[in-house]
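Continuing the series of single-chain predictions for the mutant panel. This is the parent chain; the variants come on the following pages.
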Amino acid sequence: MSLRKKTIPLIMIGLLAAVVICGCSVINRTPTATPTAMATPVPPTPTAAPAEMVLVSTQTPANDALVKTLTDFAAANSLQFRTVSALTSADITPSTKIVVFSDAPTDLNSLASGASATQFILLGTANSANLSNVSSITANPADEAFMAGYLTELIAIDWRSAALLPSDGSIGTGYADAFENGARFVCGSCTPFYSPIVSFPQMASEPANSPSTTWTADAGTLALKWLSAAFITPSAVSADVTSTLTSRTSNTGSVYFISTTAAPQDGSVAWVALLDTDYSSTLKTILPQVLAGKGNLNARAQITLTSVNADVVTPGKQNDFNTTAADLAADKINPSSVQ
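Parent structure:
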């Protein structure tokens, strides 16, 4: 056999062996997992507390009319409403939009300055510190006197009205002036048709702590004018005073008596009406402004009626009273003038 013939089979054998060796030495490649980027956990967003309005009242229970006004306003403006007897700075949160105080707290300045986003409303107390986020609704003694005179004359027969008034209150003798202006707002000169013909209302003013004998003596002088209606300041109320005022009457043996809610209500006097201070009506008018963030508002409370004898103070007269009281609170009427 020639060398060429021997070489070819050797080459073939070598190639076959190389193929076998390569096949046996295949690299086992295990797939490598591609790392997945881990998402950064997002902390849950806390649910915001609902906006709220708070009434701070030491009265138990709180004034019904006041609570109803605030409850209705809260419902109409998607506010939570709650009543508490006391409030600290820790109780005020970013969700506290309005706080109403029935009595001014001693720490008002720190509460208001520490919660600039909260609006505060004082009932019966002025915003003496002129705080920008504090508003107030105050009672004007002259308004009470004016409406007392107005009502007394409104129900008097033949204009025959009288009053026992304080001379040493917050406005002193100004109380008698405002009372007379309120009466004359009804009838002008208030001159009766029957004798004794004198100008009404007839009035007597004394310091509030005057003894009953002083008030009774005044009542005796006023009774000489044959009265029909009389306003009695709470400190002057006594059985002797009321019986003396009715000693001579022009309307079938009785005098229509009026006072304020501070007067004794023990049944010894048949009041035909009592005057009170109504913060609710004025509160309704300023709440929308306060909720909008407007502070340092100063408004006057409206005088209202309670314990009404509708046979004497008829619905029509009550309506006249309420209309005049609203105009007075809105500063459309000056209690220092009959105009």
